[in-house]
Every structure is written in C-alpha cells, then in structure tokens.
C-alpha cells in the first residue's frame, strides 16, 4: 500500500486528464490511494470544484487536498499560461507543507507544476511528469532548450522551418505559443520546465506507440535531450473520460446523425472567440463542405 500525490495544473483540460490518470492507477493498483493537490484560481474555480466533487463521489480512493488561496490580480498577466506559471511558483511553500504532511510514495506533476520538484527533492520523493498532450508536443518540449540555443531571436518573426527529432519540419510561427517570443514570463516558464523535465524519475504520457511511433522512438533514443539522460517514457493512453451521465441535448442530436457525417472542432477548455471569428470558422466549414460535395459530384476540386 502507498499514497500517490497528483498535482495538476488549475486548467480543466489538464485537470480532467490527471483525474483519468488517477482512476487508471487505482484500477490497476487498488491498494494505492490518490491525493490530489488542487490550486484555487480566479478563472475556472467553479468548474474545477464541481468536477472534483464528482470525482470524490464516484471514486472513494481519490481525495483532494486544497492548497491555500493565493490572490492574484489577473489584469496584470498577459495570458492564462502566465497566470498558471506564477500561481504554481507562488504556491511552492504550500506544496512543500502538503508533501511533508502526506509523505507520499511518489509525486506526479503536470508540466506547469515544475516548481514542485524542489520541495519533493528535499523530501526524497520521486517526481514523475504527466504529459497531457501528444508525443510530438513532448518532443518539442524536451528539445526546446536546444532549439532556444540554436535559433536566437523570436520564433514568431523567423519565417523559417524548424527541425526537431522524429518530427517533420514545422514553420517557426507554428511552434507552441509559449515559445514564440523571448523575454516573456511564459517563455521563461516553458524553458524552465523543459530543462527540468529530464531530471524527473519518468514521464507518463497519454498516447500509445502505434499512434506516434516516430516521436516516441526519438524520445526513447535520447535524441531530444542531447546533454542529459532521458528519463523512462511510459505510454499509458488512451485515457478517456467516461463523460459521466451528461445527457445534454447536443449529444442527443449527435447520436441521431448518420455515421461519419459530423465534423468535430475542439479548441480546448479555454478557447474563446469573438463573434467575427466564429463567423469566419463557420464560413470556412461551409466552404469545405461545398468543396467536398463538388468533388463527390465531379471528381475534382477547384
């Protein structure tokens, strides 16, 4: 028996993924208990709290330890990423206190929660990362210190192709938004986590080998971290939420549609758009449907 502490970022997409990992661990190792460290934030507290209550009610082996609130003036931050990086950094003493009182067997952290590695090291607690995105994104994360060194300047202004191990070339402006501009808090935060991730005991990722064989091989072969041993990579995907008992009318509508007749667009849990942007998205979808219909009818695109 033992206790595993999970420390997710206070963002719904990351939080839900971490809870699915917790349920996965309990399913395969029922002798363990899970304690989740939760951060209070001002931009989606209600939704996270509601979801945490649902998890507690349906999974008794998973409990929550709520870290003290740290007030932040959201107007002073340029992005949600900047808020989360600063919130986790300011919470380091609260995390240290929680770890001392819980004494877990291991600590599993979100990439935004890299600051927890220091107190965990002081307490001799092994730290594993849970990477909630794809292996191709993990390649870019692990390789980012090398890219940052090899390509001086701002990626958003380079207008060139960027090469990473196991990946096709990517336009510099299509790199993760946190990396595009130097001398910003999110750039510093991303570089910090990218440098510390190889120092962890292992990386857990929500994918599987046959889905992303090339980037996974590049990571395991040590090509993404040329100056440091790469920790073990554990592919545990696909981890999927069961969706609960949600019976929203949109789901009923989807169930009534013919197979392969619906295009699903996901912009993440924090995707927000202006009215004009939504109209452009709708226009693009409509034009795509017209082109596909024309191809089916005449056998060629304009």
From TrEMBL:
GO molecular function: UDP-glucosyltransferase activity
UniProt keyword Nucleus present: no
Residues passing through the membrane, by range: 127-146
Listed InterPro entries: UDP-glycosyltransf_plant
Keyword Transmembrane helix: yes
Keyword field: Glycosyltransferase, Membrane, Transferase, Transmembrane, Transmembrane helix
Assigned protein family: Belongs to the UDP-glycosyltransferase family.
Protein name: Uncharacterized protein
Organism: Tagetes erecta
């Amino acid at each position: 028996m033992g206790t595993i502490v999970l420390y997710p970022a206070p963002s719904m997409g990351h939080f839900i993924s971490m809870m699915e990992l917790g349920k996965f661990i309990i399913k395969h190792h029922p002798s363990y208990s899970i304690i989740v460290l939760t951060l209070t934030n001002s931009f989606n507290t209600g939704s996270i709290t509601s979801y945490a209550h649902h998890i507690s009610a349906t999974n008794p082996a998973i409990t929550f330890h709520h870290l003290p609130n740290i007030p932040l003036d959201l107007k002073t931050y340029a992005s949600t990423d900047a808020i989360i990086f600063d919130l986790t950094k300011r919470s380091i003493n609260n995390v240290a206190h929680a770890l001392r009182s819980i004494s877990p067997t291991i600590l599993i952290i979100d990439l935004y929660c890299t600051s927890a590695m220091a107190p965990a090291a002081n307490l001799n607690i092994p730290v594993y990362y849970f990477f909630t995105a794809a292996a191709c994104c993990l390649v870019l994360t692990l390789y980012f210190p090398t890219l940052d060194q090899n390509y001086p300047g701002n990626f958003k202004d380079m207008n060139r192709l960027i090469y990473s191990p196991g990946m096709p070339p990517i336009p510099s402006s299509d790199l993760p938004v946190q990396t595009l501009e130097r001398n910003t808090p999110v750039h510093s935060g991303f570089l910090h986590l990218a440098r510390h991730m190889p120092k962890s005991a292992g990386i857990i990722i929500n994918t599987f080998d046959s889905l992303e064989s090339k980037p996974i091989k590049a990571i395991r072969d040590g090509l993404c971290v040329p100056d440091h041993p790469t920790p073990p990579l554990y592919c545990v995907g696909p981890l999927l939420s069961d969706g609960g008992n949600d019976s929203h009318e949109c789901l009923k509508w989807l169930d009534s549609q013919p197979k392969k007749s619906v295009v699903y667009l996901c912009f993440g849990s924090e995707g927000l758009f202006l009215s004009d942007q939504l109209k452009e998205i709708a226009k693009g979808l409509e034009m795509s449907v017209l082109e596909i219909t024309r191809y089916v009818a005449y056998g060629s695109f304009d």
